[in-house]
Structures are given as structure tokens and as C-alpha cells.
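Technical annex B. To support the medicinal chemistry partners, we prepared a structural model of the target in complex with 6-O-alpha-D-glucopyranosyl-D-fructose, based solely on the information shown next.
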Amino acid sequence: MDKHQWWQKSVVYQIYPKSFQDSNGDGIGDIQGIINRLDYLKLLGIDVIWLSPIYESPNYDNGYDISNYYEIGNEYGDMKDFERLVKEAESRGIKIIMDLVLSHTSDEHEWFIESRKNKNNKYREYYFWRKGSEEFPPNKLKSFFGGTAWKYDSLTNEYYLHLFSEKQPDLNWNNEQLRKELYTMIEFWIKKGVYGFRLDVIELIAKDPDNLITGNGPKLHEYIRELNNIVFKNNLLTVGETGSATPEIAKLYTDENRKELSMIFHFEHMSLDEEKGIGKSKWDIKELDVNELKKILSKWQVELNNVGWNSLYWSNHDQPRIVSRWGDTKKYHLESAKMFAIILHTMKGTPYIFQGEELGMTNRRISDISQVKDIESLNIYYERLSSGYSKDDILDSINKKGRDNARTPMQWDDSKNAGFTTGTPWLEVNDNYKKINVKKELKDKNSIFYTYQKLISIRKSNNIVVYGDFQDIESEYDEIYSFMRILDNQKWIVIANISANTLSHKFDFEIKKIIITNYKNIEIQKDTIILRPYEALVVEI
Ligand code: ISL
Ligand code: CA
């Protein structure tokens, strides 16, 4: 890296607006609610807020189905509220980045309404319309949300492509006019003062459905460079969601000489608890193999050390809560939540915190499908029921991997509805809110919140965290993850026990300083560090 970028030093906090803070009692989080909580975020120390979509939307996929890119959804407020948010955030040194959904729109978007009307419509080519027969769709492409990716429309007797729900028709980026309209729209938001974008399923924009190509189409990088050249040129934070990226692909996106994106979200660590094979999906769950996790994390660190830049994340609005997933929600809740934080924030890259992660928020448990709101979980439930799975079996998968786990309302205090709303929350609050909430965390100096706060402040005053090289350190035990960060003459070592066992770790260095730990002290016997359950520490040597 020859030039240092502001987003390399930053920590990003993802807000899922619908579930963050309701300010008017309708049970839905809103922009005013976010403004009311900016001081909390300032206290945490984050630099950037990534807002999941707040555009006008019929909300079949909670805003990832946009019907008007230029308007704020009524449930969230209006443009004045948004402008105030940008200003209020800025006055606290916080930048806003928006979610951009460029691969599809809602079927209620004006372009699609027009496009449907007839084959000669000006907007017809903004989407993918293909011939099929009454019984058979154009080809075998599948939707990520289950079933075929083609929907028959009797109006013109053709099918349209939807890689997500049928309420999310896919945009055809081969159409130059469409691309231009999208760029104009992006410029509109840049003028509003946003500092960047998270690009939803960006790897799908160059799809070629006739050849069964969805991700990584031949023109993908050409389109991204065009985006960069025409709209991103300034010094924005752009992070692409790229579920199938390998480090080789990541370099194409993030090598700064190629002028594409700042960084991407890869999914390699997120798929480690999925069974692989034909017919298997995220719902077919296997135990995490810690060795595999270590290998993946280190691989990305080493591969992008000199070319490109990593994003670092354990959770988002599509993933289960990390403590429930790979940590411990009972005896070692505190230790395991802090351990994951310490690993993530001391690797090289830009860390992302998903709302509530800094409190150690957990998955919720449901016992009936009526408690589910997410379209993906609902689809899989009915799909699997009709193919013979038992109810319990499916609910078990949804409890482990369903997206609503991350979307339950933010837990602010121990009052009714966790202080999220005075009305009825759109999605039930996790019933552990009396134990896990912001108010309680702030009172306890030993809380998970303060570990996050400390990690962020360590990053601010130590360039080694941001720019230091990464080097893997061998450990005797599979469950111990250890690595070194090196900048000039400075060396830091991170050691983490990703298990509930007590383990020992031999070392041959002199500890100069303890940077952070998740226990009160470090236990050393001669040349061995005793690592208690989920213990993690960072030392300068
Ligand atoms: O959630 C997932 C795990 O099953 C993914 O397949 C997810 O659908 C994929 O990562 C794309 O996610 C993004 O685009 C979707 C939207 O539903 C997600 O919330 C968004 O993050 C469609 O816009
Ligand atoms: Ca509201």
C-alpha cells in the first residue's frame, strides 16, 4: 500500500434500521431512532455507519427490494430526516455509507412496471425477459431463495429472471441506459454527503442467464471499473458483497491499481458450518472445524497482505449471531464474545461490527413457523415440508441459521421491548434482553462493550494494527489460533483459545507489554502460557 486510505483506519458499524431504534412507537426502527443513538455509537468509538437499505420498498426482503432509489421509505422517515442524520453523524466524526442494491429492484419499481407492459416498452431491456412454455421456464436457473429463478408473466407471455424472490426482478446491466440511470442515482447520494457504499451481491451484476452464468460473469470487472471511473472516483469506501470470492478474485476487486473497490466481503469462513455436496445448502449444518477456520482466516490475511485489502466480519443481517454459532452462550458468554472480538480486531483489514455484536447478542429460539418473518426462512420451511423433512428438523435449521436471528430488535435496556419500541415490535425481541442490554453493559467495566471500545481505541493509536504485516504462528493445539503482527521494529502476538478447554501454549519470547486480554491477568508457568476457556490475549514482544 503506498497511500494510506481513511477507510483502512476505520471501524464500521452496521445498522439494520428496522431493528435498531424505534422513535414513534410503530414498532419499526427509524432514522430519528438512529439519530437518538448516535452518542452511544460515538462512545463505542466507531468511524462509519453502514445503513442497510432505507429506500422506498414494499419490504418483501426488508428493503433489499427497492421500488424507488430516490426516496426514503415512509416507515423510516423522510429525506429531511436523512439529511439530519448525515449532519448529526458528521458532527460526531461519523461517516455514513449506504447499501446499494444494483443487481435487482422490486417488481414495484417504476422501471419494472413499465417493462412488464409490452415487449416494445422502453424499459423492457432493463430486465431479463425470455420465452418459455406454460409448463417449462426458459432454463434450469435456481433462485437463491428456493425454486426456479424464472417467473411467468401472462401479460406478455414471457418469463422474467429473479435470482432472489419473485418480488426482486434482476436488472440487465448489458443495457447502457440502465447503467447510466444507476450512476446518476449513485451521484445523487454522494451529493447528500455519504462517504461510500456497501454493494449488495455485486458479483451478480454481470449475469448471463442464457448461459447459466450468475456470479463472476465475463463483464463483471469491466462494469465495476466503469462504476469506479464514473461515480466512485473520489475517496469513498466501497465494499462489495461477493459470496463466491476467493483470494484470487478478491485481488481483482481490491488491487488499488485496478481501480475497482476498496474491499469485499468474502463468505469462505461463513460457509464452514455447511455440509458440502449436491443438494446441500446453508440449512444442512455441520460442526465447525476450528482448524478450517484458522486456515481460512490466515489464508486471506497472507494473500491480501500486499495486494488488496481485507474486510473483517463475524456477523451481519444475513448470518446467525457469532456467540451462538461458534462461541458459548452460557458459562463462557463473556469470554467467548470477547475472544471473537479480539481475533477480528487484531487481524489486518477493516473491521465491521453488526449491531448488538458489541453486547454479545445471541440467536433467538423459535418453536413455530408463525414466529418467522424472513422470506428466505419461510421459503425453505415450505419447500422442505413438501419434500418430506420433519417440522422439527426444519425449525432446528432455522434456529441455527435463519436470518431473523440477527434481526431481532437491538436490546437497549431491561424495560418492556428492551427499550426498542413503546409499541409492538415488528419482530419479537429476544427474551434474554434483561440479561443482555446496553444499559447493563455500560454499567459494568468488565463488559463485552468495553472490550470492543478498547479494541477500537487501540486501533486508533497503534499503526501496527492497521498496517502491520501478518504472520501465522504454529500452535500445538488445533483450538489455539495465534499470529503475529509486525510493523518496523514492533511486534505484537495474538493468542486465542477457540474452545472451552484449558490448554497450554509454549512461547519463547519476552513479553514487553500486555495490550489486551479477556481475563483479569495472564497465567504463565515458565515458558508456557495457560489458556483458560476462550482466553484471548495480545502482547507486545
Ligand atoms: O443470506 C444468505 C444466506 O443464505 C445469502 O444467500 C444472501 O441471500 C446473499 O448473501 C445475498 O445477500 C444480500 O442480497 C439479498 C438480501 O436478501 C440479503 O439480505 C443481502 O445481504 C438480496 O438482495
Ligand atoms: Ca418507527
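Notes passed to the chemistry partners:
The mean pLDDT is 97.
Residues 135 and 364 are 40 Å apart (CA to CA).
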